[in-house]
Amino acid sequence: MGMSQRRRVLAPLAFAGILGLALAGCAESDGGTGGGSGSGDGGTTKTVRISGGITGSEADDLNASFEQFTKDTGITVEYTGDKSFEGNIVTKVTGGDAPDIAIVPQPGLLKTLVDTGKVEAAPDAVSKAVDENWSKDWKSYGTFDDTFYAAPMLANLKGYVWYSPAKFKEWGVEVPKTWDEMMTLTKTIQEKTSAAPWCAGFASGDASGWPGTDWIEDLVLRQAGPDVYDKWVSGDVKFTDPDIEKAFDAVGSILKDPNYVNAGFGDVKSINSTAFADVAAKVADGSCALTHQASFLSANFLDVKNAAGETPKVAPDGDVYAFILPGVTEGALQVEGGGEFVAGFSTDESTQKVLEFMASPEFADARVKLGGVISANKNADPTLASSEFLQDAMKTLQDDSTVFRFDASDLMPATVGSGSFWKGMVDWIDGKDTKSVLSDIQAGYEN
């Protein structure tokens, strides 16, 4: 997708920075090496400054996550959020105005920062903590040229299908366990209701089309498997490859069938004019039976009403809930998602201690219990998550049997991941044939 999932989808959570980034930048530049209080490399500072794209109430929660750490160590942590972080951070770093720590929402952006030569290799204590608390896949996303730079922080899980448990009971249907069962479910709901079961929205301003990339990524991972997925991400498997075309065909069996979409909004082409977050209201009021979206959609239900005019309850026995898009084989748990990575620009003692803390289960627990987020830290406590849904999502991420892959388009070159891939999805929904769309997307590698 190119654009980080948290930056893209947390707009509904109305983030706002706690301090102006310019002011923080001036303070951060005092030491010349990212030492927030003017210390040089190897020195000790009692204030560590962190920058990232997390803003508003979640920025407040992030700062609150360090309260006990500050009491225990005497180190003050000041996090500053910037809505334009992804566009600003490289300029700040190359201009000598790096923070002590940056929370980076994409492996691709992290690689760009590493290439500046300003990111410090992660301390041994952080590397050890990640080995103990995360899967090898997560560590690999913070590793470049065999050097480990950045520990994972929070995570989000994609590939959910949101539905109404009450409606499923009314229709006498159950959560599907395979892709074929899901297609049967789709047909059954359509026959029982004489209406399109699915709703979808691809509209997202300059980022329009990204929800479609999530669909394709899910199907590539489930149908072709993780090895093909990895080769696709690296460019060794082209978009014109039969495995990728097969994924488009599978997604098209839903999104391009006028009998199956676009519930509550119109025809197939209305997908492109429907805002991605607007599907929550249609699922809540019962006019849409099924929609595909990441775990973040749980937050959008807080801003809509169900058929009774009340805030819908997100629970297995509530108004809405979600199941993970099933794979080809029953029991296979293959998911994609996103998350942030913690990169250090200073070697001072306090910064190193903060990096170590942020790689610990204690940090994950402190932040998760404040609500709205999950972590893939295997030793964090999922029962601290603020809803049953988030607890289930966190357990899935922690499960050793889960095959996890980072969002493919976030790992691809920007000319493709947030360029030709996004545009290609819009063109495809507008009616352009699949082979032409795949060729157009692949051409993004030449730009």
Quantity of strands, as a count: 11
CATH top level assignment of the largest domain: Alpha Beta
Oligomerization: single chain
Taking all Cα atoms into account, the compactness measure Rg is 22 Å
Strand content: 5-15%
Q: Which structural class do the helices and strands define?
A: alpha/beta
**The number of domains:** 2
Mean pLDDT: 90
Terminal Cα separation, in Å?
Answer: 17 Å
CATH T-level topology of the largest domain: D-Maltodextrin-Binding Protein, domain 2
Structural summary, described in words:
By secondary structure, the protein is an alpha/beta fold. It folds into two domains: 5-157 and 338-399, Periplasmic binding protein-like II (D-Maltodextrin-Binding Protein, domain 2, 3-Layer(aba) Sandwich), CATH 3.40.190.10; 160-333 and 409-446, D-Maltodextrin-Binding Protein, domain 2. The chain contains 21 helices and eleven strands. The strands form three sheets. Strands 1, 2, 3, 6, 10 and 11 form a six-stranded mixed sheet that branches. A three-stranded antiparallel sheet has the order 8-7-9. It has a two-stranded antiparallel ribbon with strand order 4-5. A hairpin with a 2-residue loop joins strand 4 (143-144) and strand 5. Helix 11 (210-224) packs across helix 12. The chain is globular, with a radius of gyration of 22 Å. The chain starts with a helix and ends in a 5-residue tail after the last helix. 51% of the residues are buried. Mean pLDDT is 90; it is low at 1-42.
